[in-house]
Amino acid sequence: MTDASSLGADAATFIAVVRAGDKARFALITERHRRELQLHCYRMLANYEDAQDMTQETFLRAWHKRESFKGNAAPRTWLYRIATNACLDFLEKRNDRTPVPSELADSELPYLQPYPDRMLPEDPQESAVARETVELAFIVAVQYLPPRQRAVFILRDVLGWPASKAADALELTVASVTSALQRARVTMREQLPGRRLDWRGPATHELSNDERGVVKSYIGAHERNDLDGLISLLRDDLRFAMLPDSGTLVRTAKAAVDGWVSGGLFQPGHDDWRGIVTTVNRMPAAALYLRTPGDPAYRLFAIAALRVVDGKIAELTGFDATGQPWLDLPPTV
């Protein structure tokens, strides 16, 4: 069976389910796309919890709008269109998600959340999951695009849709889509200088030995309460931010370490650590657990996502995880 006939068969089956009003089979067919739709919403919104909500909203809208499916496109394409517009509607209502001016583009995004690798689509080839398009730096850069321009960029340069298909999904002209994409590419080059910008090309998915070694050493330094050992893992030009706190972004290792020490880390009461190696956004990460005096358990304190360059940590994004067992991590160890 050819790809074209397969798409036709899928559409025909879906139309039959729609006409029959078979809610159970409709849910079964649409559910197989949950992971890739959720990742799409995450790229649009940079927030894991919001992406989950918008994916569920996509399925609700799909059911209520099921009669609008005419078989002109594959069910998957139709669902992506609904998901994209659900995210655009969400962004239109949220004043706190307005892109910051370009001169402030180095500031952190308080609403940014990590994305658990276990929830990534299982077939990277089919789902366009290149590592570079999941890493935090990419997700942050995309947020500085106006919402509709952001949607055009993701549909065209990440998912690889042709201009006509993206235009149809967003109810724009092909000329408008082409213009929006050109502007988006300029912004992305400004936000990610020196990074690979061919998002649809082959990409590495697995962590390197360097990355695995550095995250283990990072955890080891915490568990030994070894501040000097931790400093040795950091590049001088480290970029560090702790979210969701605002105003924490620093761009040198010295500033980051000074902030940690002045905040009490590695001091009595904040010096008994345990850690778990994990991955988020296809990046090495450490789940850090802290035991405070009088508490018998080590409790989840923070998740640290690391970008490793030449064996050292170039970017460290911390996420406050106190009181919220994120990513199915155990709340205590």
From TrEMBL:
The keyword Transcription regulation applies. One of its GO terms (biological process) is DNA-templated transcription initiation. Keywords: Sigma factor, Transcription, Transcription regulation. The keyword Transcription regulation applies. Residues 31-95 form the RNA polymerase sigma-70 region domain. Pfam families: Sigma70_r2 (PF04542), Sigma70_r4_2 (PF08281). Residues 138-187 form the RNA polymerase sigma factor 70 region 4 type domain. GO terms for molecular function: DNA binding; sigma factor activity. Interacts transiently with the RNA polymerase catalytic core formed by RpoA, RpoB, RpoC and RpoZ (2 alpha, 1 beta, 1 beta' and 1 omega subunit) to form the RNA polymerase holoenzyme that can initiate transcription. PANTHER family: ECF RNA POLYMERASE SIGMA FACTOR SIGG, RNA POLYMERASE ECF-TYPE SIGMA FACTO. Belongs to the sigma-70 factor family. ECF subfamily. This is RNA polymerase subunit sigma-70. It comes from Amycolatopsis albispora.
